[in-house]
Write a structure and sequence with these properties.
This protein is α/β, with parallel strands linked by helices. Among the domains are: 12-163 and 368-548, no CATH class; 170-356, Anaerobic Ribonucleotide-triphosphate Reductase Large Chain (Alpha-Beta Barrel); 715-865, no CATH class. Helices cover 41% and strands 14% of the residues. Strands 3, 4, 5, 6, 7, 10, 11, 14 and 18 form a 9-stranded mixed beta sheet that branches. The protein has a 3-stranded antiparallel beta sheet with strand order 15-16-25, with helices on both faces. Strand 23 (829-833) and strand 24 form a beta hairpin. Helix 14 (465-493) runs parallel beside helix 20 (652-662). The two termini are 43 Å apart. It comes from Streptomyces coryli. InterPro entries: RdRp_reductase_class-2 (IPR050862), RNR_2_N (IPR013678), RNR_lg_C (IPR000788), RNR_NrdJ/NrdZ (IPR013344), TSCPD_dom (IPR024434). Belongs to the ribonucleoside diphosphate reductase class-2 family. Its cofactor is adenosylcob(III)alamin.
């Protein structure tokens, strides 16, 4: 068998892959047209328009970015235009070198890919190369898919052409290696990317050095890396560094590792209560350690079985592998869950599951992941990502029958995988070791976005067998097609260099994927044809792979798709469900609208509702933000519209089950955090981690609502705190000059006005009587819970007396409110009070109710406590406070002509229903996350964007700013 070269002579650093697997290679790929027309360029098939992009920081009104007259297709939404212009256009603004059109941006990328493909002999002819260029341009132009951000940043520019967003490093048990780790990680952060590594090779603090002293242990070295990450982050960009630190569960320092962030969280609380600025980005938060990394514990099957059986588990020395200590596995597991319950760290990674699906075990084990946990492969490697917009493949005929275009989807996957592999031929890498490994194994990470939107549009609940079947089928077809093309590429330009050594393992993993596809459950007319296409793809994978080998050691992951998801105008990111049913939309000519998600009318039609019913239900959602009691909507269909936030939010296990449905069909893993309600317990976290292992996921992270302290306060709250501090300082100075202050008890008269309130919290009933002074002011509180003589009744009596005496000695009610609201313990949950729908505990409810009854509006508003009426007013007018001009202005505005067009009186298509339900967004909303908070009266646990000041939203394991596209991680 003869072998041809895969391209012109290049240095080993730039080698495109030598094809050492030994397979014979054909003359090149024949590229099939998918969307384009022969003789017509994709740019000539769309209408173009000029836009002005001006992005401001809403906190101070300053202009963050401005570029006028940029050229984009007319169908591109304003937010996508803003993000692509500000993030991806290259050249200094105002100079001739600055890109001014999407055509220039796409050309810069696709022409580079075409040239590299021709140089390295990927194409059978120049005509095939031209089709490749046009199809790639069409798909990017029409937001069918997107490369990860580094491709948009770097490809086709004079700077190093880094195409990867995800990196895995390694560190050994030597000072030289540890210092190399600091340096390599710092260089990756400087370039705006993230990295992960496993510290388990470093000997523990319970082991001896060669000199006879005790080793420092990995946790001590984490401090230096954390400080380095924080410094480089603040020097180069305002976002946090993206990094992952992993430690094996059998490392002797595992307990110290688990507790690192728990102890720092306690420090944050103490410093905050002492008056220090501990908000995310605050002046004093830098004094807290270990905040720049996600931590994960790598557990194996032996440990998880010991947890199940209540057995002992051995911690092993790093130097000799001998057991140096035995611990109770269940107790250690509970410590992990308790730490995650408090501060969201550590996450968990399932080592045996991960390596069971490893295609290259003869080269080395998979020990770590990238910061967002979707890329898992060899140490000192990288992965470039691309994601497809699933909603672009949903087709509906004239009668409303829906189908997923499996054939077209597969063709686009083939196109994208080809481009991704070509990029490794010319890519630069941050370190020589990463470059060598990536060129030898050619890891790729194709994935998708908009799954949540697709499921809702097709009438599937996110947490349902039908939803999971469709998600699994699409994922299987995607990965099967990707490996099929990888095998075809191996026949053209050779398999990856490490394939020969790992061929048996790689073939075994391909068969595991195919077997999982064969046994997966088929559910309905939507997923069954996709499963059939996936089955055919996997048959081709095994047949072609046995003949040619494979070009890539890895093909697919599910990434957060933060910035690129916004650039594609996706409603949902990665594998996530919809955030809420109502979203915030920027308009091309300026301004914004509050609209019902376009997927809602599509779902209703799929479920069989008539046009008039769809219009009424959409109108209800536009007004209330949910489907509860929507006219004509069947209760069994409520679950289809369950979202990530709100009263009908998806259960934590619903998220885990969706991950488990997709995982058998992915090369890598899934970037996702399982959000848990504030009422969750440590036992709930344990169950999530246990079920994640049993269901075959590779990694999990949880976030319990309200658990993190270091979240930004609203500007209004900060101003109120500052004013209060100034007032207290003035009083303090005056008192110090006059006389020493001694509190005096002010007793209530015999007859005093009072309010008695009955309430239920999480099913527990109680009564509260609040008596006040005749001249205003709360003076005492009585609480009645449970039977007289019980422990709970006694504690409530004692608590009531303590609070009442404090009030009579002059302790301000707002002090009690600030201390006792958000206190979390059982019973907790729903209440029967329309002003306080959810309570984290009885104490939380009591002081919210007292604040509403006895505190002035300004005081409780600064504490974030509002009545149902005030929240509704805020939603409609942008202000909680009543105004003198409180007229029916909105009703008048709705009857006036609108620009650009008023919806037609008779609604005939889903977009018209959506527009009919649109109304001007509240002035204080700047993103969908902020709109959801106002609509549902809840507070999202997410940081504010450092660039534009708006509330971010979760995207996988990271956060994304919908306003400007900034991320808090590596997406």
């Amino acid at each position: 068998m003869t072998e041809t070269t895969s391209g012109p002579a290049r240095s080993s650093r730039k080698s495109g892959g030598s094809g050492k697997g030994g397979a014979a290679k054909s003359k090149g790929l024949r590229i099939e047209r998918i969307h384009t027309t022969p003789g017509v360029h994709p740019y000539d098939e769309v209408e173009w328009a000029r836009r002005d992009v001006v992005m401001t920081n809403w906190r101070d009104g300053s202009v963050n970015f401005e570029q006028r007259g940029v050229e984009f297709p007319e169908f591109w939404e304003a937010n996508a235009v803003n993000i692509v212009t500000s993030k991806y256009f290259r050249g200094a603004v105002g100079t001739p070198q600055r890109e001014v059109s999407l055509k220039q941006l796409i050309d810069r990328i696709v022409k580079t890919y075409r040239k590299a493909g021709e140089d390295y002999k990927y194409f059978a002819s120049p005509a095939d190369a031209e089709i490749f260029e046009h199809e790639l341009a069409y798909a990017l132009l029409h937001q069918i898919f997107s490369f990860n951000s580094p491709v948009w940043f770097n490809v086709g520019t004079p700077q190093p052409q880094q195409v990867s967003a995800c990196f895995i490093l390694s560190v050994d048990d030597s000072m030289e290696s540890i210092l190399d780790w600091y340096k390599e990680e710092g260089m990756i952060f400087k370039g705006g990317s993230g990295a992960g590594l496993n510290l388990s090779r470093i000997r523990s603090s319970k082991e001896l050095l060669s000199s006879g002293g005790n080793a420092s242990g990995p946790v001590s070295f984490m401090r230096g890396a954390d400080a380095s990450a924080g410094t480089i982050k603040s020097g180069g960009a305002t976002r946090r560094a993206a990094k992952m630190v992993v430690l094996d569960v059998d490392h002797p320092d595992i307990e110290a590792f688990i507790e690192t962030k728990v102890k720092e969280e306690e420090k944050i609380r103490a410093l905050r209560d002492a008056g220090f600025d501990m908000d995310l980005g605050g002046d004093d938060i830098t004094s807290v350690q270990y905040q720049n990394a996600n931590n994960s514990v790598r557990v194996n099957d032996q440990f998880m079985k010991a947890v199940e059986n209540g057995e002992k588990f051995g911690l092993r020395g790093r130097m000799d592998g001998e057991i140096i200590e035995e611990v109770d596995a269940k107790e250690l597991f509970r410590k992990m869950a308790a730490a995650a319950w408090v501060c969201a760290d550590p996450g968990i990674q399932y080592d045996d599951t991960i390596n069971h699906w490893h295609t290259s075990p003869e080269t080395g084990r998979i020990t770590a992941s990238n910061p967002c946990s979707e890329y898992m492969h060899l140490d000192n490697s990288s992965c470039n990502l691309a994601s497809l917009n699933l909603l672009k493949f949903l087709k509906a005929d004239d009668e409303g029958h829906q189908s997923f275009e499996a054939e077209r989807f597969a063709k686009v996957v083939e196109l994208v995988i080809t481009a991704m592999d070509i990029s490794i031929c010319f890519a630069d890498f941050p370190t020589e070791k990463i470059g060598e490994t990536t060129r030898a194994f050619r890891q790729l990470g194709i994935g998708y976005a908009n799954l949540g939107a697709l499921l809702m549009a097709t009438g599937h609940a996110y947490d349902s067998d039908g939803g999971r079947a469709l998600a699994g089928a699409i994922t299987s077809l995607m990965t099967g097609t990707a490996y099929k093309r990888s095998a075809e590429l191996a026949g053209v330009v050779g398999p990856y260099d490490g394939y020969a050594r790992n061929s048996a393992a790689h073939k075994r993993v391909m068969k595991q994927h195919a077997d999982a596809n064969a046994t997966a459950k088929r559910m309905d007319d939507l997923d069954t044809p996709v499963w059939a296409a996936a089955t055919e793809a996997w048959q081709d994978v095994i047949r072609t792979g046995d003949k040619n080998g494979y070009r890539n050691a890895q093909a697919s992951v599910l990434a957060p798709t933060g910035t690129i998801g916004l650039a594609m105008s996706c409603d949902t990111t990665g594998i996530e469900p919809d955030l809420a049913l109502v979203k915030f939309k920027k308009l091309v000519g300026g301004g914004s609208m509050q609209i019902v998600n376009r997927t809602v009318p599509m779902a209703l039609k799929r479920l069989g509702y008539q046009e008039e019913q769809v219009e009424a239900i959409v109108a209800h959602i536009a007004e209330h933000g949910n489907v509860v009691d929507a006219p004509g909507l069947k209760t069994e269909h409520y679950e289809v519209f369950d979202c990530a936030m709100g009263d009908r939010s998806i259960s934590p296990m619903g998220h885990v089950r969706m991950m488990a449905a997709a995982q058998p069909f992915l090369s890598g893993a899934i970037s996702k955090t399982v959000n848990m309600p504030s009422t969750s317990t440590v036992e709930d976290v344990e169950e999530i981690y246990l079920q994640g292992w049993k269901l075959g996921t590779k990694a999990l992270a949880v976030y319990v609502e309200g658990s993190k302290v270091g979240q930004p306060l609203s500007a209004k709250k900060k101003e109120a705190d500052k004013a209060t501090e100034q007032a207290e300082e003035t009083i303090r100075e005056a008192v110090e000059k006059v006389v020493e202050y001694r509190p005096v008890r002010r007793r209530l008269p015999k007859g005093r006005p009072g309010i008695t309130t009955s309430f239920t919290v999480g099913g527990a009933e109680g009564y509260m009587t609040a008596n006040s002074y005749p001249d205003d002011g709360l003076g005492e509180v009585f609480l009645k819970m449970s039977k007289q003589g019980s422990t709970l009744a006694g504690m409530m009596d004692a608590f009531s007396i303590a609070v009442s005496v404090g009030l009579q000695y002059g302790v301000p009610l707002e002090t009690y409110v600030s201390k006792f609201t958000n206190m979390r313990f059982e019973p907790a949950g729903m209440t029967d009070d329309p002003d306080v729908r959810m309570a984290q505990s009885i104490v939380d409810y009591i002081f919210r109710r007292l604040a509403l009854d006895f505190l002035p509006f300004e005081t409780r508003s600064a504490l974030g406590i509002h009545s149902a009426e005030e929240r509704q007013r805020h939603l409609e007018t942008g202000s909680y406070e009543p105004t003198e001009e409180e007229l029916d202005v909105q009703g008048l505005a709705q009857s006036a002509p609108r620009t650009p067009a008023q919806p037609e009186p008779v609604v005939t298509q889903a977009p018209s229903v959506e527009e009919a339900a649109a109304k001007e967004a509240p002035k204080q909303a700047h993103t969908s996350a902020e709109l959801v908070e106002m609509q549902l009266g809840i507070q999202a646990d997410a940081p504010l964007c450092f660039s534009c000041g708006t509330k971010m939203q979760r995207a996988g394991s990271c956060y994304i700013c919908e306003g400007c596209g900034s991320t808090s991680g590596c997406s």
